[in-house]
Specification:
Elements: H1 14-22, H2 27-30, H3 48-58, H4 64-75, E1 78-83, E2 86-91, H5 94-102, H6 114-123, H7 134-148, H8 151-177, E3 184-187, H9 189-205, H10 218-237, H11 242-248, H12 250-279, H13 289-296, H14 301-314, H15 317-331, H16 334-349, H17 355-360, H18 363-375, E4 381-384, E5 390-392, E6 395-397, E7 403-406, H19 407-411, H20 451-468, E8 469-472, E9 481-483, E10 487-489, E11 494-499
Parallel strand pairs: 2-7
Antiparallel strand pairs: 1-2, 3-11, 4-7, 5-6, 8-11, 9-10
Helix pairs in contact: 7-8, 8-9, 8-20, 9-15, 10-12, 11-12, 12-13, 12-14, 15-18, 15-20
Amino acid sequence: MGACSRLSPRSAPPGLSRALSLAPAMVAKLSPPKVQPFEAIPRNGHNAWLNLFQFWRTNAFQNLHHVMDRNFQNLGPIYRETVGSHDSVNVFLPQDAAQLFQTEGIFPRRMGIDSWLAHRTLRNHKCGVFLLNGEEWRSDRLILNKEVISPAGTRKFLPFLNTVAEDFVAFMHRQVRKNTRGSLTVDLYHDLFRFTLEASSYALYGERLGLLEESPKPESQQFISAVETMLQTTLPLLFIPPGVMRWANNRLWQEHLKAWDTIFSHADKCIQNIYQEFCLGKPRKYSGIMAELLVQAELPLDSIKANVTELTAGGVDTTAMPLLFTLFELARNPQVQTAIREEIREAQAQGSKELSKVLNALPLLKGALKETLRLYPVGITIQRYPLRDVVLQNYCVPAGTLCQVGLYSMGRSPAVFAEPEQYKPSRWLGKEDNSFKALAFGFGSRQCIGRRLAEAEMALFLMHILKNFKIDTVSKEDIRTIYSFILKPEKPPRLTFRPID
């Protein structure tokens, strides 16, 4: 029986059959609702290219999360979206995400990014697991899991992240000492980029970039700008094939290519340094994720380079933005800030020097990160192509259809979360069922490969910052957000840091 079949009277259980024969009036109440065909799914406009024109005219790309939210409110918990070359079915309820998980198979597919693939083809670069599919994806992913996402692999790079977090606190103390008021009020937007690039590069390559020094290297600043440009130019390229974009807006396309070239150039320099040390046969010690992959020799060098480059590019904005949003929420929720600070003191009073054990003793801090990602998911959707027909919201969705789970809408829906407008990290600590509600890093075997790296980086950063500073903000108003392939503040908040004696 296919996924879109429905129970027939002949196959009904005996008890149900008797009820139907004895009480015909109850048939409508007892029978499951008829599964609707795919064509019956509510649609947001029928002309794909007219819809794209409307997106361009109203600058809806930057407000895509709000557009999706309005569509759910107007069309219900499932709707079809056709914009340019993009065609998808959108849902936002956890049970629908669970249904998609059940149909993803051993080779789950996410939405391809044609502009990224076109760059790799033009420059003759290999693709990493973010862009790969099928057996090639699975083969690379299983090898990478050991060093990047497994508990054993994570424990090895935790000291690297911890060192950079401690150095960032020292950097902040230096800035405070320059201020006669004994505090620091600052827009931390660019400093957080510097921290996340420094931390992720240290974990990946085993070497420091010096970004927390007074005068960071210009090449590193160029890399950060390139990542921002790459993300900004990716969004419009999602809806128009690269070949068309080269004709319609060649300047945008060239900016996209140049940004990726800068990212690959930066990563290649780091890779060459560690590869040379590896070839020289220096004394063996843990020197970061790439060195471990080289030692394993299970992946060819070009595959290692492709995957490490993707991790380098993906580990800057996608970690810096949740940290910025978390600091802001803690600043305007001082009672939560105080509770987490007390939790940190108690965890460190236990005397364990093993970082993984210290982090495991910080459930409220981890809850704060989940709460931030509920309200401000880095990626506003998760994409899957079901391997077989699947019923979502009582509509039959054919196998191979692009399905998107709207994370922004899920996180702010009262149908999913009680008091969704409230910042309540404790909601993640209770006994209520939170299955398929914390999906910021995806789900299943295709969840974000850098998840543990990002989670550890953010947790250690917050642990050291809260231990050393009280955080405040003048503005208690909600942050206006824009979507630039990741969710960002329209205007970064100014935060005040006061050292704790």
